[in-house]
Structures are given as C-alpha cells and as structure tokens.
Amino acid sequence: MGFLEALNYPIYVAIFICVYSFLAIGLNVQWGYAGLFNAGVAGFFAVGAYTSAILTSPDVPGRLGGFGLPFIAGVAGAMLLSALVALPIGKICLRFRGDYLAIVTIGVAEAIRIFARSEEWITGSSRGIQNLPRPFGDLPYVYSQLAYLALVAAILLVVYLLVERQSASPWGRMMRAIRDNEVAAMAMGKDVPFRRLQAFVFGAALMGLGGALYAHLGRSITPEAIDPMIASFLIWIMVILGGSGNNRGVLAGVTIVWIIWTASEFVTDQLPMEYALQAKYGRIFLIGLMLQLVLRFRPNGIFPEFRPTQKDSRKPDKSDKA
Amino acid sequence: MTRAPMLHCEALKQFFGSFCAIDNCTLSIPSDSITGLIGPNGAGKTTLFNLIAGAYQPTGGTITFCGQDITFLTPDKRFAKGLVRTFQIPHEFQHLTVIENLMMVAPDQPGEGLLQNWFAPGRVHRVEEETRRKAWEVLEFIELTHIADQLAGLVSGGQKKLLELGRTMMTDSKLVLLDEPAAGVNRTLLRKIEDKIAYLHKERGYTFILIEHDMEMIEKLCDPVICMADGRVLIEGDFKSVRSDPRVLEAYLGEKAGTKH
Q1: What angle is formed at CA B101 by the lines to CA B128 and CA A174, rounded to 5 degrees?
Q2: Which residue of chain B comes nearest to A306, CA vs CA?
Q3: Which residue in A18, A41, A256, B173 has a CA-CA distance of 20 to 30 Å to B228?
C-alpha cells in the first residue's frame, strides 16, 4: 500500500498529461495540419467541461440540468457541443487570414469564460457545478486514480491512432497541400474552405473531449479552471515545442512542458512566503524562455514533422496493372 | 471549321481597382483544339486564365464551359467539370514529394473523408494503390521517376514545370490551361514538353489553351492562335495570318526585335 501511495503524485501528473494531450492533439489538427491559428483553446475546453457537467451532474434547483446522465453521454455531448460552437466561428472566420481567426478565438474564449462566471442559471457562476459522476469513483483513492488514468490513457490511445491514420491518409496529404499552397490546392479541385472548417471542427471536438475528462477528474468545474494561461497558451507552447504537425512530438511536448510546469510549482512552494509569490511569475517566465530557445534553435520543435515518404518510392507491381 | 466551342467567354471584364486588365474580351475555344494565346506582357493572358479557372470572379461578362455557365463557380467546382490549369510560376506543394504532388490531384478519393478512413480502410487502401499506380505512369511519361520521393520544393525549375504538366494528367480533364509551360526551360526540355502536349492532345483528346512566348512552339502546336493586347482580343486565326498581321507586328512581334520576352 505504501508503494502505491508514493505513486499518488506521478499518477496525478500523468492524468493531467493525458487530459492536456487531447487539447494539444486537437490544436495540432487545427494548426499543425490545417494551419489555423486558434488562440482560444480554453474556450472549447470550457464548452466541453461545462457541457459534460450539466449533462451528468444531479439536478440542482435554479440551474439548468443537471440531467444525471451517465459519464459516456456527458463526454459525447461535450464533443458534440464543442464541435457545434466551432462550426459558426469557423464558417465566419476561416475565410479571413490567420490573425483574424486568432483574434476572434481569443475573444470567444474570453466570452465563454465570463459567461461561465456570470450566468448562474446555466453554469452555477463562481460556485461552478459540483458532484459530477466519476468512473471508478467508488474505489479507494489510489486505485480510483489509477483506474481513471487507465481510462483516459485508453481514450487517448484511440484518439491518437485515429488522428495518425488521418494524417497518413490522402486527407493528411491534402491538408499539407492546402497548407503549402492554397491557390494550387483549389485549382486541383480541393474544396479549401470546407476542409479548413472540417479540421477546425474536428480539433474543437477533441478539445471538448479533453474538457469533459478534466471535469470528471475533479468531479467539478469552476470558472477558475478555465485559465487561458494554461488551457490556451501553455497548450500552444506544448505543440510548438514538441513539433507541430507531428502527433508523437506533440505528446512529448505535453509531457515535457507539463512536468516542468508542475515541478516548478513544487519548487516554488518550498520557498519562503515572500519569494513564493514572485516565483510564481518566474514560472511563466521560464516557460516563455523555453519557447524562445526552441524557436531560436529548433524552430520546428524538438521532434519536427516526420513523414514516412519511403513507402511511396515503391514501384507499383506490374501484376496489378491488369 | 464546324467545331463546337468548348469554352466561350462573352464580354468579359476584370478591373483591379481602376485598372482594367480584361476589357470586354469575347472569345471561343473550339473543342479538340490547341489554341495558342499570345500577346505582349501585360496583355491580360494570365488574368484571362485566372478568370477561366476561377481564381478571380470577373467584374462583368460570362464564361460558358461545355454549355454550362461557370462564371461564378469556385475553382474546385470547375476542376470537377473537367477544367484544369497550370501556373506560370510553378505552384508545387513544396512539402509533398514529387509523387505525392501527383497523387494529391486525383479526384474523388475516399481517403479524403474523415469517416471513410476510420470505417472503410480497405476501400481507401485500394483506391490509394490505384492512384499511386496512375501517378507512377505519369512520372514515367514526364520522365521524373528518379526523383519520385524528393520534396517537390527542392527539385529544379524545369522539373517543376514538368510536374505542373503531369498534374493535369492525373485527371480526366477536357480542357487544360497551360500558362507558359516552356518559360525558363532549356531547349531540349522545351522540345520534350512540346511533344508531350502534342501526344496528350492526340491520344488523350485534351483540348488545350496555351500561353507561350516561344513562337516555334506556337507555330508547331497551335491552331487557332489568338493574339491579345490591352485586355482584349486583337486578332484570331491560324498562325501565319496572325503572325503577318500588322497590328500583331506592332503590338507584339515587332518589338521583339529590340526587347527580350
């Protein structure tokens, strides 16, 4: 038992790494594959978290829901609603250049955060939504954490494999072509606005999934959890540092950045009170410095976009020419 | 000549701000022809291509392709109808390999849908193999098999020109717009491109519109020839009559003696 308890903290960190991996893979689909600058990851994260919370939490008078639905329904609803929120945003903004999308997504994410804080009848405002069901929640703490980690990791594996298959398929080739030269891709018959929207909505659904898994982890969601510093910008750093366009790189980026982020919190908490507060900002500086160094020395990330091109060199068999 | 027009532009106009790039341009492209489009720099040839291919929407006028009005269709819809173009400055996908540049062009790939990749991988794989085989045949035709796996951004300018031509062969197009396929290409390669165009015209039945400054190539391949100047059609006819027309000599060929194109 003592051994397992020593694992408490690593398990906790690992769950967070998995949860943020959904956001990072979602962003990788949008930015790495389609070149869409979504600076409002936190917004879709919030939509996912609150949707699942409203669907699954027990009924509270004076607030919409909760509908007391099972976990799986909450997760599915979270993905669906995040996608539905992304749809009109994408429809309007993807016609413009990247900067417009960035501005609008930041704005939407902030609007969602303020909405969550003020609209008591939907989100419970600052108290948030409590008592969400949690899979394996009845087990003793360590086992429960371990089981939740296994669940989240399994979902992550499925998502990773699906996205990898997309990336290696003609879809991935088309998206890279669009990113390389939009005009030529259009002239070669590709419906560029639709494909962009598709990537944007797909990525947003993955972010919503991450939000839902985050909410069920802590059995609650409050507006404080939607910190754009972490849920938007730290995610960006993870993707860029890991290597945008490469899912394995992105997963490595999540792991590295999150471990540095939590470990630095661990360190600053040991400092005397008067320094601890300043040290908190030092952490943000540290992450910024790391990003600067990566952009300076490895602009494509630690693990740049890797593509197995060898397979194409194979001359096709004459036999299947028949 | 009783060939029905494949493409017809009626009173086409294109303004960029107050500058009139295409000024009331009316022309017809007969099916099963290689139409040469010549004229001085800035005559509006490439702008006309952009309008036909759908990169711009015209300020005025209509474009009819195979009897259908395509004036306001997006480029991808025109591609689906069998209209494909090349670019004067090669628009290769630089981070795709040469063969991927070709494979990407194939229309109606099931692997381009999200769901089919997840739920019908067998079908995606079959079509992908078919596409690869077709792309390899095109590479053999344009003689680029040795660089199939190089990133297209890294190959030479002439090879990019060939790749542009190759991309048009990945489709079952009716009308191919070639924008200066020979510009910046050495003489031997130029003759090769010429032969390939003639072959595609004869064997595959492509109709071409060809913008070119190389008069030898125009003479060898094109009938009819259209000469443009100042955004409109100056004269149209066979090569000899266009070449000897005094207006063409003045607007285009005459100045060739003194200046390079």
Answers
A1: 65
A2: B95
A3: B173
CATH number for the segment(s) A2-308? 1.10.3470
Please give the DSSP secondary-structure letter assigned to residue A39. Answer: -
Query: What sign results for the dihedral spanned by CA atoms B249, B254, B255, B256?
Result: positive
Give the amino acid at A126. Answer: S
Domain boundaries in chain B? Answer: 5-91+173-256, 93-154
Longest dimension (CA), chain B: 65
Q: Does residue B64 sit in helix, strand or coil?
A: strand
Q: With contact defined as beta carbons under 8 Å apart, do B61 and B12 qualify?
A: yes
What is the rounded end-to-end Cα distance, in angstroms, of chain B? 32
Tokens of A263: 């470990």
Give pLDDT, residue B254.
62
pLDDT at A88: 93
Q: Read out DSSP for A200-237?
A: HHHHHHHHHHHHHHHHHHHT-B-GGG--HIIIIIIHHH
Asked if residue A132 lies in contact with residue A219, where contact means CB atoms within 8 angstroms, the answer is yes
The domain defined by B5-91+173-256 folds into Rossmann fold (3.40.50)
Confidence tier at B40 by pLDDT (50, 70, 90): confident
As a whole number of angstroms, the distance between CA A66 and CA A46 comes to 17
B245 contacts B251 by C-beta, under 8 angstroms: no
DSSP string across A51-108: HHHHHHSPP-TTSS------HHHHHHHHHHHHHHHHHHHHHHHTTS-HHHHHHHHHHH
Numbered residues of chain B with Cβ closer than 8 Å to any chain A Cβ: 53-55, 74-76, 79-80, 84-85, 87, 91-97, 99-101, 103-105, 107, 109, 111-114, 117-118, 121, 124, 128-129, 131-133, 136, 145, 148-149, 167, 171
In tens, the pLDDT along A263-319 reads 888 888 788 877 877 787 788 888 788 878 888 888 888 888 755 444 444 455 444
Contact A316 B55 (CB under 8 A): no
Hey, are the CB atoms on A187 and B84 less than 8 Å from each other?
A: yes
DSSP state, residue B128: H
For residue B222, the SS3 value is coil
Q: DSSP strand E in B127-218: where?
A: 175-179, 207-211
Which range of A12-21, B185-194, B217-226 scores highest in mean pLDDT? It is A12-21
Q: For position B245, what pLDDT does the model report?
A: 83
Beta-strand pair B19-30/B225-229: unpaired
Q: Stretch A72-80: mean pLDDT, rounded?
A: 96
The span from the CA of B110 to the CA of B108, in Å, is 6
Best residue in A173, A206, A311, A320 for a mutation probing chain B (most B CBs within 10 Å)? A173
What's B107's DSSP letter?
S
Give chain B positions within 8 Å (CB) of A320: 129, 133
Residue B193 distance to chain A (closest CA, Å): 21
Is residue A312 within 8 A of residue B96, CB to CB? The reply is no
Residue range A100-132, pLDDT digits in tens: 888 999 999 999 999 999 888 888 888 889 888
ipTM of the complex: 0.88
